[in-house]
Amino acid sequence: MASAARLYWTFKLLGHDQVSILNGATRGYAADESRAMATGAMNPVAKTFRAQPREGMLATSADVAEAAAAGALLVDYRRGDEYLGINRNPKTRRSGTLQGARNLPMEWLTADNGATLRSPASLRQLLGLADIDANATQIAFCNTGHNSSLGWFVFNELLGNPGVRLYDGSMAEWSRQQDRPVERQVVIAR
Protein backbone atom coordinates (compact mmCIF):
# COMPACT_ATOMS: atom_id res chain seq x y z
CA MET A 1 0.00 0.00 0.00
CA ALA A 2 2.86 2.39 0.71
CA SER A 3 4.13 2.06 -2.88
CA ALA A 4 0.66 2.80 -4.24
CA ALA A 5 0.33 5.76 -1.88
CA ARG A 6 3.73 7.07 -3.00
CA LEU A 7 2.63 7.03 -6.64
CA TYR A 8 -0.69 8.63 -5.69
CA TRP A 9 1.06 11.39 -3.72
CA THR A 10 3.50 12.02 -6.58
CA PHE A 11 0.67 12.46 -9.09
CA LYS A 12 -1.16 14.79 -6.69
CA LEU A 13 2.04 16.77 -6.04
CA LEU A 14 2.41 17.27 -9.79
CA GLY A 15 -1.18 18.52 -10.08
CA HIS A 16 -2.90 15.41 -11.44
CA ASP A 17 -6.16 14.67 -9.65
CA GLN A 18 -7.51 11.73 -11.66
CA VAL A 19 -5.75 9.11 -9.56
CA SER A 20 -6.96 6.53 -7.07
CA ILE A 21 -5.81 3.53 -5.06
CA LEU A 22 -7.52 0.14 -5.17
CA ASN A 23 -8.30 -0.69 -1.54
CA GLY A 24 -7.37 -4.33 -1.19
CA ALA A 25 -5.31 -4.13 -4.40
CA THR A 26 -6.50 -5.87 -7.58
CA ARG A 27 -7.61 -9.01 -5.72
CA GLY A 28 -9.67 -6.98 -3.26
CA TYR A 29 -11.30 -5.04 -6.09
CA ALA A 30 -12.07 -8.18 -8.09
CA ALA A 31 -13.47 -9.98 -5.03
CA ASP A 32 -16.41 -7.56 -4.96
CA GLU A 33 -18.69 -8.93 -7.68
CA SER A 34 -20.53 -5.61 -7.95
CA ARG A 35 -17.44 -4.06 -9.53
CA ALA A 36 -16.89 -4.40 -13.25
CA MET A 37 -13.60 -5.75 -14.48
CA ALA A 38 -12.57 -5.07 -18.07
CA THR A 39 -11.11 -7.99 -19.98
CA GLY A 40 -9.17 -8.21 -23.19
CA ALA A 41 -6.60 -5.97 -24.76
CA MET A 42 -6.77 -2.23 -24.19
CA ASN A 43 -5.48 0.39 -26.61
CA PRO A 44 -4.53 3.41 -24.53
CA VAL A 45 -4.72 6.84 -26.09
CA ALA A 46 -1.63 9.02 -25.71
CA LYS A 47 -2.17 12.32 -23.92
CA THR A 48 0.04 15.18 -22.79
CA PHE A 49 0.29 16.03 -19.12
CA ARG A 50 1.70 19.35 -17.97
CA ALA A 51 2.80 19.27 -14.36
CA GLN A 52 1.60 22.06 -12.08
CA PRO A 53 3.45 21.30 -8.83
CA ARG A 54 1.64 21.89 -5.56
CA GLU A 55 4.53 23.04 -3.40
CA GLY A 56 2.26 23.23 -0.33
CA MET A 57 2.17 19.42 -0.14
CA LEU A 58 5.92 19.19 0.29
CA ALA A 59 7.96 20.05 3.39
CA THR A 60 11.65 20.88 3.08
CA SER A 61 14.32 20.35 5.71
CA ALA A 62 14.03 24.05 6.62
CA ASP A 63 10.24 23.72 6.94
CA VAL A 64 10.69 20.77 9.28
CA ALA A 65 13.23 22.62 11.44
CA GLU A 66 10.87 25.59 11.71
CA ALA A 67 7.88 23.34 12.52
CA ALA A 68 9.86 21.43 15.16
CA ALA A 69 10.95 24.69 16.81
CA ALA A 70 7.31 25.81 16.89
CA GLY A 71 6.16 22.52 18.47
CA ALA A 72 4.18 21.43 15.40
CA LEU A 73 3.05 17.84 14.98
CA LEU A 74 5.74 15.72 13.32
CA VAL A 75 4.71 12.12 12.67
CA ASP A 76 7.30 9.38 12.16
CA TYR A 77 5.78 6.49 10.16
CA ARG A 78 8.71 4.14 10.69
CA ARG A 79 8.79 1.04 12.87
CA GLY A 80 9.01 1.61 16.61
CA ASP A 81 12.60 0.33 16.84
CA GLU A 82 13.79 2.93 14.31
CA TYR A 83 11.79 5.69 15.99
CA LEU A 84 13.31 4.84 19.39
CA GLY A 85 16.85 4.66 18.00
CA ILE A 86 17.37 0.94 18.64
CA ASN A 87 17.92 0.16 14.96
CA ARG A 88 18.73 2.31 11.96
CA ASN A 89 17.87 1.99 8.28
CA PRO A 90 21.00 1.84 6.07
CA LYS A 91 19.82 4.98 4.25
CA THR A 92 20.13 7.05 7.43
CA ARG A 93 23.35 8.17 9.08
CA ARG A 94 22.15 8.62 12.66
CA SER A 95 19.71 6.63 14.78
CA GLY A 96 16.58 8.17 16.25
CA THR A 97 13.90 10.57 15.14
CA LEU A 98 13.11 14.26 14.80
CA GLN A 99 12.90 16.05 18.14
CA GLY A 100 9.37 15.93 19.53
CA ALA A 101 8.04 13.58 16.83
CA ARG A 102 5.26 11.10 17.52
CA ASN A 103 5.37 7.56 16.18
CA LEU A 104 2.62 5.97 14.09
CA PRO A 105 4.10 2.89 12.41
CA MET A 106 2.96 2.55 8.80
CA GLU A 107 1.95 -1.05 9.55
CA TRP A 108 -0.91 0.19 11.74
CA LEU A 109 -2.65 1.86 8.79
CA THR A 110 -3.62 -1.32 6.97
CA ALA A 111 -5.33 -4.50 8.16
CA ASP A 112 -2.68 -7.07 9.05
CA ASN A 113 -0.03 -4.90 7.32
CA GLY A 114 -1.59 -5.84 3.99
CA ALA A 115 -3.29 -4.17 1.06
CA THR A 116 -6.55 -3.20 2.76
CA LEU A 117 -6.78 0.16 4.47
CA ARG A 118 -8.38 0.34 7.89
CA SER A 119 -11.71 2.13 8.23
CA PRO A 120 -11.70 5.78 9.33
CA ALA A 121 -13.21 4.72 12.69
CA SER A 122 -10.43 2.16 13.25
CA LEU A 123 -7.79 4.66 12.20
CA ARG A 124 -9.12 7.24 14.67
CA GLN A 125 -8.94 4.63 17.45
CA LEU A 126 -5.30 3.89 16.60
CA LEU A 127 -4.51 7.61 16.45
CA GLY A 128 -5.79 7.84 20.02
CA LEU A 129 -3.28 5.18 21.06
CA ALA A 130 -0.49 7.14 19.36
CA ASP A 131 -1.72 10.43 20.89
CA ILE A 132 -2.14 12.03 17.46
CA ASP A 133 -4.95 14.45 16.60
CA ALA A 134 -6.47 13.46 13.23
CA ASN A 135 -7.26 17.11 12.47
CA ALA A 136 -3.92 18.67 13.42
CA THR A 137 -1.57 20.13 10.85
CA GLN A 138 1.33 17.70 10.52
CA ILE A 139 4.51 16.88 8.69
CA ALA A 140 4.78 13.20 7.80
CA PHE A 141 8.18 11.52 7.46
CA CYS A 142 9.94 8.14 7.50
CA ASN A 143 13.34 7.09 6.14
CA THR A 144 12.97 8.24 2.52
CA GLY A 145 9.44 9.65 2.19
CA HIS A 146 7.99 6.47 0.71
CA ASN A 147 6.27 4.85 3.71
CA SER A 148 5.10 8.19 5.08
CA SER A 149 3.24 8.68 1.79
CA LEU A 150 0.74 6.17 3.18
CA GLY A 151 0.40 8.33 6.30
CA TRP A 152 -0.18 11.38 4.10
CA PHE A 153 -2.83 9.46 2.13
CA VAL A 154 -4.66 8.26 5.25
CA PHE A 155 -4.80 11.70 6.86
CA ASN A 156 -5.42 13.75 3.72
CA GLU A 157 -7.68 11.48 1.70
CA LEU A 158 -9.40 9.16 4.20
CA LEU A 159 -9.64 11.41 7.26
CA GLY A 160 -10.09 14.65 5.33
CA ASN A 161 -7.16 16.58 6.81
CA PRO A 162 -5.67 18.85 4.11
CA GLY A 163 -3.06 20.18 6.56
CA VAL A 164 -0.60 17.33 6.06
CA ARG A 165 2.70 17.83 4.26
CA LEU A 166 5.24 15.18 3.38
CA TYR A 167 8.93 15.59 4.18
CA ASP A 168 10.26 13.77 1.13
CA GLY A 169 13.90 13.83 2.26
CA SER A 170 12.86 12.36 5.62
CA MET A 171 15.47 10.87 7.97
CA ALA A 172 17.83 9.98 5.10
CA GLU A 173 18.30 13.69 4.39
CA TRP A 174 17.89 14.99 7.96
CA SER A 175 20.45 12.59 9.49
CA ARG A 176 23.12 13.67 6.99
CA GLN A 177 22.90 17.29 8.14
CA GLN A 178 25.01 17.45 11.30
CA ASP A 179 23.36 20.70 12.44
CA ARG A 180 19.94 18.99 12.56
CA PRO A 181 19.14 17.44 15.96
CA VAL A 182 18.12 13.81 16.27
CA GLU A 183 16.37 12.45 19.36
CA ARG A 184 17.11 8.94 20.63
CA GLN A 185 15.09 7.37 23.39
CA VAL A 186 17.27 4.27 23.54
CA VAL A 187 21.05 4.16 23.08
CA ILE A 188 22.44 0.69 22.53
CA ALA A 189 26.04 -0.04 21.58
CA ARG A 190 26.32 -1.73 18.22
Notes on the structure:
The protein is an alpha/beta fold and 190 residues long. The protein has a single domain (2-183), classed as Oxidized Rhodanese, domain 1, CATH 3.40.250.10. The chain is 31% helix and 11% strand. The chain has helices at 2-13, 25-31, 61-69, 80-84, 120-129, 148-158, 170-174; strands spanning 58-59, 73-76, 97-98, 102-103, 138-141, 164-167, 182-183. The strands form two sheets. A five-stranded parallel sheet has the order 1-6-5-2-4. The longest helix is centred in the N-terminal third of the chain and has 12 residues, at 2-13. The chain starts with a helix and ends in a 7-residue tail after the last strand. The model has no long low-confidence stretch (mean pLDDT 95).
Question: Which labels suit this protein?
Answer:
190 residues, Oxidized Rhodanese, domain 1, alpha/beta, 11% strand, 7 helices, globular, two-stranded antiparallel ribbon
Strand content: 5-15%
CATH third-level topology: Oxidized Rhodanese, domain 1
Q: Record the strand order, biggest sheet.
A: 1-6-5-2-4
Order of secondary-structure elements: HHEHEHEEHEHEHE
Termini Cα gap: 32 Å
Mean pLDDT value: 95
Unreliable stretches (pLDDT < 50, length at least 5) are none
Main sheet makeup: 5 strands, parallel
CATH C-level class: Alpha Beta
Structural class: alpha/beta
Q: Considering DSSP H and I runs of 4 or more, what fraction of the residues is helical?
A: 25-40%
Q: Using DSSP, what is the number of strands?
A: 7
Number of domain units = 1
CATH superfamily: Rhodanese-like domain
Instruction: Tell me what the CATH architecture is.
Output: 3-Layer(aba) Sandwich
Question: Judging from the principal axes of the Cα atoms, what is the shape?
Answer: globular
Q: Give the radius of gyration.
A: 18 Å
Number of helices: 7
